[in-house]
């Protein structure tokens, strides 16, 4: 333990610096977790959009085939 005011101030500064590093590391870790979570949700949304688009295209293709078959039977 420091005996002088200068020594005590240095120790206090060191303690503050260490605490700030710990907080910075924790914030960085949480930010990385948030980034990963957001990336995962984005990929899920993109996959769902592709599935819906594919399903809509399949229905449109089937409707076209059905319409052609119906017109061939009628004409």
Oligomeric state of shown chains: single chain
Q: How far do the termini sit from each other? A: 102 Å
Helical content stands at over 70%
Number of strands: 0
Molecular shape: rod-shaped
Unreliable runs: none
Average predicted confidence as pLDDT = 93
- Write down the Rg: 32 Å
Detailed description of the structure:
This protein is mainly α. The protein has one helix at residues 5-74. The N and C termini lie far apart (102 Å). The model has no long low-confidence stretch (mean pLDDT 93).
Q: Can you give keywords for this protein?
A:
75 residues, mainly alpha, 93% helix, rod-shaped
List the helices and strands and how they pair.
Blueprint (H helix, E strand, L loop, with lengths): L4 H70 L1
In short:
This protein is mainly α and 75 residues long. The protein has one helix at 5-74. The radius of gyration is 32 Å and the shape is rod-shaped.
